[in-house]
Amino acid sequence: MDMSGNVDEQCVGGFNYNYSSFTEGLRALAMNLRYTITEKGRINSLALTSATSAEGKTTVTYNLGIVMAELKLRVLIVDADMRKPKIHKLAKLSNNLGLSDAIATDQPWTDFVQTGILENLHLITAGSTSPNPIALLNSDKMKQLMQQWQEAYDYVLIDTPPI
User: Fold this and answer.
1) d(CA 154, CA 68)
2) How many CA atoms lie less than 13 Å away from 154 in the CB half-sphere?
3) Pairing of strands 37-38, 41-42
4) d(CA 17, CA 147)
5) Phi, psi torsion values for 121, nearest 5 degrees
6) What's the pLDDT band for 104 if we cut at 50, 70, 90?
7) How far apart are the first and last CA of the chain?
8) 23-40: buried (b, 16+ CB within 10 Å) or exposed (e) per residue?
């Protein structure tokens, strides 16, 4: 606790989690998403982007995933920013194989899933560099993967390239 009586840090799954207005904002977003319903049903996948790079979309994606996993939701974070992937750096994971490989090969997507800092937080990093990532992301295989992920997880968070 700091001098004002606020909690500075708490250990969550062996991870020092900083309590701040940013974290509280993400918690509010996570709670609102749980109750957002469209004509097709509950929203369970989000693609996060930004106008330019370095605006914080990866940080928001990763930390939103942590907050949702803390709520005991099964969360998959997918790094679809194949030109400048960063999710693996935040999560301290290998980026040798990932989304590009899941799309380009016949291997099951589950072979590319890595576990995050919480048991129910899973990640698929961007993987090997592709000469044409837009073609991969716009492929039928990517559509199939999205459907399978939406069935397997409570939420799928996609970290996309900036527009």
Assistant:
1) 9
2) 15
3) antiparallel
4) 32
5) -110, 115
6) very high
7) 41
8) eeebbeebeebeeeeeee
Of residues 56, 55, 77, 78, the one with CA closest to residue 68: 77
**Phi, psi (degrees; rounded to nearest 5) at 109:** -60, -25
Q: How many angstroms separate the CA atoms of 99 and 158, rounded?
A: 11
Contact 157, 61 (CB under 8 A): yes
25-49 confidence digits (pLDDT tens): 888 888 888 877 666 677 899 999 9
**In whole angstroms, what is the distance from residue 48 CA to residue 161 CA?**
9
Tokens 């840090």 locate to 9
| C-beta contacts of 116-119 below 8 A and 24+ residues apart | 116/65, 116/66, 116/69, 116/77, 116/91, 117/12, 117/13, 117/14, 117/15, 117/66, 117/91, 118/12, 118/13, 118/15, 118/66, 118/69, 118/70, 119/13, 119/69
Q: How far apart are CA 7 and CA 20, in angstroms?
A: 9
What's the burial of 76, exposed, middle or buried (CB within 10 Å: 0-12/13-18/19+)? buried
Alpha-carbon distance 100 to 155, whole Å? 20
Rounded CA-CA distance 23/17 in Å is 9
pTM score, whole prediction:
0.85
